[in-house]
Amino acid sequence: MARIAGRFRRVEPRASARSYLLGLLSGVERKNCWQMAEQAGHTRPGSLQRLLRYACWDADAVRDDLRSYAAENLAAPDGVLIVDETGFLKKGRSSAGVQRQYTGTAGRIENSQVGVFLALATSRGRALIDRRLYLPEQSWADDPERRHAAGIPDEVRFQTKPFLAGEMIAAALDAGITAPWVTGDEAYGQDPRLRAVLEARGTGYVLAVACSTRVRINHGRTAVRADTVAGRLPATAWHRQSAGIGAKGPRYYDWAWIHIGIGANRHLLIRRNLSTGELAFYLCWSPATVSLAELVRVAGVRWSVEECFQAAKSQVGLDHYQVRHWTSWHRHITLAMLALAFLTAVAADAAPQRPAGPHYFDHSLDPVTLTVPEIRRLFGAVFNPPAVSTARLLHWSIWRRHHQATARRSHYRRRTPDESAG
């Protein structure tokens, strides 16, 4: 809070921000304004709702503080920036950017919002450091009425997800983030403009692409599909290496790399699953010569962002919000990211110094290193308020039911035909 306190001009929103962060770090079941206000001992959720909607503070400035905080606490020479998106399932059509669209959260097309995120992963930990709410083109970007109702600024226009990713990467590098690599899935690897932006900045990348991607081998004139290239490789081209340590130990795959295009440091990287034989493909570029092991490491780091999403949603309520406004979405998401970065920084400081290397195992009988969920559990136990009185519980029960009755009457009034009509 000392880090971001100067972003709030008045003491009231500053105190509300502290309560909000403590609520996100608490064990409350649903981290929305109602339950977090009750957790904080407030009599109404109004102060937390004002923090998200009307209070005067800049979520982007707090995001900058969060990015610096994460960089300082996770600093390591092996940093990788990861771009990815996650969905937030919603009902109705009023939440900014919501529409029926594919989201990996559900694994199908659902009514949802989609956020594009940037994560920083190093050997010390990983954290989300930037975010953009994706604004669909036809249903939102070109609809002035919906834009106004959801509070979308006039300067915000439709941008593709890879474009949003490029903006966040550029902002992170300009802010001094030390990360020689960028990685992402096919949605970003297939975009040639994003790859060109990274090369222009001298930032290496290992980006997943589809099997149908065409590449030129040995300066050939004809481009060949990536899966065709894989099918022509001899057995000696494959090397078994670990893509990093997973929950059950090293994640071994067979890997092959082939020089493509022009320049000495441009490769097609191919991963083969040991049990199924399934192939995955990556386009790689680096400003200097690197080893196969380094490309494999970066490719394996990409899964860190999925772990960030899982921790952010399960531990600090990234997807628990009940807001529709553009500003409110960015404010809640930023504070949730800050709460996760705090837990990650504490975990990094608590981790013992151990030998580096992808094959290191800890065979001791000591407890495992403190994890983000365990730190949040301990933190909540220390900072939870004293036992709540029966009167306080009844007060909140009555308040919720009054509020629900008001909302129900409003819904009924809208849906009941006007008896005087006709």
UniProtKB/TrEMBL annotation:
<protein>
    <submittedName>
        <fullName>IS701 family transposase</fullName>
    </submittedName>
</protein>
<dbReference type="InterPro" id="IPR038721">
    <property type="entry name" value="IS701-like_DDE_dom"/>
</dbReference>
<feature type="domain" description="Transposase IS701-like DDE">
    <location>
        <begin position="8"/>
        <end position="234"/>
    </location>
</feature>
<dbReference type="InterPro" id="IPR039365">
    <property type="entry name" value="IS701-like"/>
</dbReference>
<dbReference type="Pfam" id="PF13546">
    <property type="entry name" value="DDE_5"/>
</dbReference>
<dbReference type="InterPro" id="IPR012337">
    <property type="entry name" value="RNaseH-like_sf"/>
</dbReference>
